[in-house]
Amino acid sequence: MFSLTREPIDTARISRSLQQPEDGALVVFEGIVRNHARDKAVRYLEYEAYESMALKKLEEVGTTARSRFDIRDIAIVHRLGHMEIGEASTVIVVASAHRGAAFEACRFAIDTIKEIVPIWKKEFYTDGEVWIEGAR
Amino acid sequence: MFSLTREPIDTARISRSLQQPEDGALVVFEGIVRNHARDKAVRYLEYEAYESMALKKLEEVGTTARSRFDIRDIAIVHRLGHMEIGEASTVIVVASAHRGAAFEACRFAIDTIKEIVPIWKKEFYTDGEVWIEGAR
Amino acid sequence: MSIRVLFFASLADAAGTRERTVEAAGITDVISVFDRCTADAPALESYRTSVLLALNSEFARPSSPVRDGDEVAFFPPVSGG
Amino acid sequence: MSIRVLFFASLADAAGTRERTVEAAGITDVISVFDRCTADAPALESYRTSVLLALNSEFARPSSPVRDGDEVAFFPPVSGG
Q1: Domain extents for chain D?
Q2: How many CB atoms lie within 10 A of CB B112?
Q3: Is C56 left (phi over 0), alpha (psi -120 to 50) or beta?
Q4: Where are the alpha helices (DSSP H) in D1-81?
Q5: What CA–CA distances, in Å, run from C76 to A87, A135, B111, C10, C81?
Q6: Are A26 and B22 an interchain contact pair (Cβ–Cβ within 8 Å)?
Q7: In what order do the strands lie in the sheet with D52-55?
Q8: Residues in Cβ contact with A84 at an 8 Å cutoff, skipping those fewer than 6 apart
Q9: Which CATH class is domain D2-75?
Q10: Which domains does chain B have, with CATH numbers?
Q11: Chains that touch D (3 or more CB pairs under 8 A)
Q12: N or C end of chain B: which has fewer CB within 10 A?
């Protein structure tokens, strides 16, 4: 399950809908809006996406994770729009019989999202706002 | 937060109570009762612990994780008693500013729990039951 | 020849728009679309070395050929997750 | 000299009990507690090479000294998580 949403992400619901009786491990990553970045206090964030391509790339990340690691399934949800401190921008859930592959696939997924999925973050401070660019 | 419980574990509640505004990443591990093991169909499990020592060792795992990895905090809950297929026996939540340390600390915690925390699993099959011993 | 062009994040600020159409002779590849947009919005020029290029929702190269009806997108290195 | 002894998992099955008290002269270290229990429950003998030893809720060695009032536990390699 790969999706973009403008609503708060319900991690528990994603986990429960992914999980099957043969799974022995779930590894979950939540990327969270934090209250500081680059030594500045962050008030809130906005995420923008090239939506058609972002969805395609999320699916590509998931498909690659499934083929490269011994996992059963993976779900990735990325939120867009306005987000407050403490809210999750990204949730990845990996279900697997064993834990090692689940940790590796989850780490691979978030690392790859941050490289290839066309989504951008704008940080809003008390004294201005800045588009954040990833490392190329 | 380190605890043993005989009730179902509410992962979302643990995550929300651990999380602080400075956290940018949560990594969660759920160890789950699966429907097969050692090529046999599992009906259900029971976990037994040397409770006073297990609690002490869970705290030791958490303290070591906090000192060894650049994380802010970690919570570990292990369930005891009867568990059905699909229920979580162990939940670990790691909160951190950055994701790398969170993944590493979470992996360290579950690996170390499986080595040093005095808890044992008994698997119940259609034709019998077996105490599972870990690798020494 | 009509190419739909999308700009995202700081590139949209520089272009002064999030979307435009390029209709012109001489447009053969992705970089020629960027050249044409830069002629209209010079602020884009400073992004020439860092811009990421997409053609029909897939990463593209400067020399990737474009055809009538294609969708081209220009954006900075991604920062989602 | 009174030592509280706990057995867990398969060791409890072998001992035929989850808890007992050892009160005897000649008990000086953890392995002598195990020896005494094995005399009463010979099924424990087969666990001698794999048993884990704890003294007052901390891992111990066969030669760890025991004192009156101590709690000793015997159990197999752990399988929680």
Answers
A1: 2-75
A2: 18
A3: left
A4: 10-15, 30-40
A5: 24, 10, 40, 7, 15
A6: no
A7: D19-22, D3-7, D71-75, D52-55, D58-59
A8: A33, A44
A9: alpha beta
A10: 2-132 (3.90.1170.40)
A11: B
A12: C
Tell me which amino acid residue A99 is: R
From first CA to last CA, the distance across chain C in angstroms is: 36
- Contact residues on chain A for C73, CB-CB shorter than 8 A: 50, 53, 118
Per-residue pLDDT band at D4 (split at 50, 70, 90):
very high
Sign for the pseudo-dihedral over CA of C57, C63, C69, C71? positive
Inter-axis angle of helices B51-68 and B99-116, nearest 10 = 150
CB distance from D75 to chain B under 8 Å?
A: yes
Tokens matching residue B79: 């369930």
Query: Can you name the residues that pair with A123 across neighbouring β-strands?
Result: A45, A130
Is B109 within 8 Å of B92 (Cβ atoms)?
yes
Sign of CA dihedral B81, B86, B92, B95: negative
Quote the radius of gyration of chain C (alpha carbons, Å).
Answer: 11
Q: Classify residue B86 by its DSSP letter.
A: T
What is the tens place of the pLDDT at every residue in C9-25?
999 999 999 999 999 88
Burial class (CB in 10 A: 0-12, 13-18, 19+), B125: middle
DSSP reduced 3-state for C9 = coil
* Angle value at C-alpha A15, between A14 and A16, nearest 5 degrees: 95
Sequence letter at residue D28:
T
pTM (predicted TM-score): 0.96
Q: What is the DSSP letter of C76?
A: P
- A19 to B27: CB separation less than 8 angstroms, yes or no: no
For a pLDDT cut of 90, what percent of chain B falls above it?
A: 94
Size of the B and D interface in Cβ pairs below 8 Å: 81
Q: What is the ipTM of this complex?
A: 0.95
State the CB neighbour count (10 A cutoff) for residue C5: 20
DSSP state of A71: -
Compute the mean pLDDT over every residue in chain A, rounded to the nearest whole number.
97
Three-class DSSP category at D17: coil
Residues of chain B contacting residue D9, judged by C-beta atoms under 8 Å apart: 48, 120, 122, 131, 133
Of A20, A6, A34, which is closest to residue A93 (Cα–Cα)?
Answer: A20
The residue written with tokens 């000192």 in the block is B67
Q: Which ranges of chain B does DSSP label H, i.e. alpha helix?
A: 11-18, 51-68, 99-116
Contacts of B29 in chain A (CB under 8 A): 25-28, 99, 103
